[in-house]
Design goal:
The chain has 229 residues and is mainly β. It has 1 helix and 15 strands. The relative contact order is 0.17.
Length: 229
């Protein structure tokens, strides 16, 4: 049990660091422009982006199945591993023969379900919830969340997100129903302003008629969403 707790704490630490990075990334990029400028042709898509041996992004596959070559290769500080596939939000120029130029790649937090006893602690502090949708390739359940944040001198004040699976039940139809909770710890981070954050839940292993029942504690109360795979 102690080994499980240590592993879960490590996972939560990495997730917490990424949540902090996601909030910072949301502050840095505002690409909207009108008219006939270069950025007026900007596209935005959720992707699986691949790094090369130098840790630079060289390709991406959108949730619509489009394969993109990124030229030139893009180096992002948050992506530290070579030859790795990351979940990301890609801002890119028009595509010509499968090749495009990237303006930026922002990390998308991937939330994989954990059992309750795998986590050192479970917190359900409220957050903002905007939308939820299944990707066209049916590989991810995407969520738009709103986190409240602010500057603080407390270096240990970092928000964390996690996904907990409380139970799995068989349904009369033959499918399974997964009862999930989105866990959020504000962890002493000030709530001065709101920032939109995107997350993805992998749907690997689900079969037709499986159902996800997701509870999210918002500032307006608990929201329950059911999604049929």
């Amino acid at each position: 049990m102690e080994r499980f707790r240590q592993t879960a704490y490590s996972v939560l630490t990495m997730v917490a660091a990424l949540v902090s990075l996601l909030v910072v990334s949301a502050c840095e990029h505002d690409f909207y422009e009108t008219g006939d400028s270069e950025l007026s042709y900007l596209h935005t898509d959720f992707v699986e982006a691949r790094t090369n041996e130098l840790g630079a992004f060289v390709s991406a596959k959108t949730d619509d199945g489009e394969e993109l070559t990124l030229s030139p290769a893009v180096k992002e500080q948050w992506a530290t591993r070579p030859d790795t596939t990351y979940r990301a939000l890609l801002y890119y120029d028009r595509v010509e023969k499968g090749v495009t130029t990237s303006f930026a790649l922002n990390p998308v937090l991937v939330l994989r379900p954990h059992l309750t006893f795998d986590l050192a602690s479970v917190s359900t502090d409220p957050l903002g919830f905007e939308s939820l949708w299944m990707s066209k390739n049916r590989k991810y359940l995407n969520l738009t969340l709103v986190l409240k944040s602010g500057q603080t001198d407390d270096k240990k004040a970092i928000q964390s997100l996690a996904l907990v699976c409380d139970s799995i039940r068989k349904q009369p139809s033959g499918g399974r129903k997964f009862y999930l909770r989105l866990c959020h710890s504000q962890n002493r981070v000030p709530e001065y302003y709101s920032k939109r954050v995107y997350t993805s839940i992998p749907l690997t292993g689900l079969t037709p008629n499986d159902v996800l029942c997701l509870d999210i504690n918002t500032y307006k109360g608990v929201v329950r969403i059911e999604v049929i795979y």
